[in-house]
Write a structure and sequence with these properties.
2 domains, two-stranded parallel sheet, 6 helices, elongated, mainly alpha, disordered C terminus, 116 residues
């Protein structure tokens, strides 16, 4: 199973590796010469874009609507009658809602799903 980390996490872990190597007498220079992306690759991890970075700020009412939509979707996903494929599709849909990707898809003209 692949590992994932953000650039910030990779940098933090790289610094910890340097500190550990210095304390134990290891080759700290090996990690000093790497940047965070190289360290992540060395550890076999894939770098993720900053998950906290948003293209726009949500208002309190938009956030409330999104949370309600996620809660409804989670309730639907708990339906024991769903097939594995339906469950995976529902989880992907909820992921898109949580990350804001669902709104971007709609803005880009994917209106068939909404009947327009």
């Amino acid at each position: 199973m692949p590992k994932f980390m953000t650039l910030g996490e990779a940098e933090t872990k790289r610094q910890k590796a340097i500190d550990f190597m210095e304390r134990t007498g290891g080759d700290a220079d090996k990690f000093r010469e790497m940047d965070a992306a190289e360290y992540a690759a060395h550890k076999g991890a894939e770098l993720l874009q900053n998950p906290m970075k948003r293209k726009h700020k949500m208002t309190k009412s938009e956030l409330s609507e999104t949370l309600d939509e996620l809660a409804d979707g989670l309730e639907e996903a708990l339906d024991p009658g769903l097939t594995r494929e339906e469950l995976v599709a529902k989880v992907k849909e909820l992921s898109d809602i949580a990350t804001g990707d669902a709104d971007e898809d709609f803005e880009e003209g994917d209106q068939d799903e909404y009947g327009d």
